[in-house]
Amino acid sequence: MAEFEAVAKVEDVPEGGMLPARKRTGEPLCLFRLDGEIGAVLDRCTHAEFAMSDGALHARGEVECVWHGARFDCWTGRVTKGPADEPLPVFEVKVEGDTIYVGRQRPPGSPR
To answer: What is the pLDDT at residue 107?
Structure first.
């Protein structure tokens, strides 16, 4: 797990909710928990660089930016509603025990 780093505790991410976090490099992350599964996207909207963690997580697997309403598939980063036209970066995630580890950015649109 050398390429993964601990960023939060599982208990800190509520079901159906989001949590801002940071990698050691300072890169902002938005952790989310949906149907018991934890994921991570860049905590910066690709449309206007607003924090995604300030937005909403929808039950159908979309994260919505609070500023202009852009929506992204939270597992693939694909844009599901404009005004954004660039996908949202998604990161590899592993959970071991009660700790959430985040790795590298996944290729755009790659399956989970």
So the answer is: 80
CA distance 44 to 60: 21
CA dihedral over 94, 96, 102, 103, signed as positive or negative? negative
Query: Could you give phi then psi for residue 10, rounded to 5 degrees?
Result: -55, -45
First-residue to last-residue Cα distance in the chain: 18
Buried b (16+ CB within 10 A) or exposed e, 93-103: beeeeeebbbb
Domains and CATH numbers, the chain: 5-105 (2.102.10.10)
Q: What is the pLDDT of residue 110?
A: 75
